[in-house]
Amino acid sequence: MKRNQAMIELLPNGDLAIGPSSPRGLMIHGYGGNKEELLGLGVQLALELGVGLLLFDLPGHAPDRDDLLTMATATAAVRVRLEAEAAPAFVVGHSLGARLGLLAGVPVLAAISPPGPALFDGNRRALIETLRSRRVRERTPYSGLQEIITATVSPAAEMWLCYASNDLKSVKDLAQNWQEHATIERISGTSHLDIVSHSATRARLTTWLADRLKSAR
């Protein structure tokens, strides 16, 4: 793949593949989002690092499916793609996607604004305003989200965690608590949602992943 080209392929199952097939990483979007929200970040990683990325829609999110978002369906969706990739080089997850990467126990994880259980302290209005609720299919409103968010997780063996200057309290708390277990970076001028598309996030993530991939070779 040339440096100025990043081929994007729509796979038969609806997933998106960017760049070469090896080495390849997995990207997991956040609650109420979709795979296309990570496309810009994925293309930059492919161009800068010469890696491939696989992007997919979590259960309950694709408009042309009728599946529900639950702990079981979400973790299964991640597991199927991890197995298909035969141990991907890394995983990049935003918000809920970062929590799912932690639940999967992947060894190399870039976690962008991973929230904690405290997200559900407070009223429903605050929750909706924070999470940009969309038409996520769940058994009851937010049931799948809460099930995943409140599950116990541990830091990945190699982990980069970034959080927004105007992020959720639970994200900031997690970053504070995991300082000894991960490379922590604060992205100024961002919020929980727009951090994933900020140029500083892309630049710092690219640098961190470049070091990880170099040491793995």
Describe, in plain words, how this protein is organized in 3D.
With about 220 residues, this protein is an alpha/beta fold. The protein is about 35% helix and about 20% strand. It is built from seven helices and eight strands. It has helices at about 40-50, 70-85, 95-105, 125-130, 145-150, 170-175, 200-215; strands at about 10, 15-20, 25-30, 50-55, 90-95, 110, 160-165, 185-190. An eight-stranded mixed beta sheet has the order 1-2-4-3-5-6-7-8, with helices on both faces. Helix 3 links the parallel strand 5 and strand 6. It is globular.
Strand order in the sheet with the most strands: 1-2-4-3-5-6-7-8
The overall average pLDDT, rounded, is 89
Q: What gap, in angstroms, lies between the N and C termini?
A: 19 Å
Which blocks of ≥5 consecutive residues have pLDDT under 50? none
The run of helices and strands is EEEHEHEHEHHEHEH
Q: What share of residues is helical?
A: 25-40%
Strand content: 15-25%
Label the overall shape.
globular
Q: What's the number of helices?
A: 7
The biggest sheet amounts to:
8 strands, mixed
Number of strands: 8
Structural class: alpha/beta
What is the rounded Rg?
16 Å
Question: Would you kindly provide a brief summary of this structure?
Answer:
By secondary structure, the chain is of the alpha/beta class.
Structure keywords:
7 helices; globular; alpha/beta; 217 residues; eight-stranded mixed β-sheet
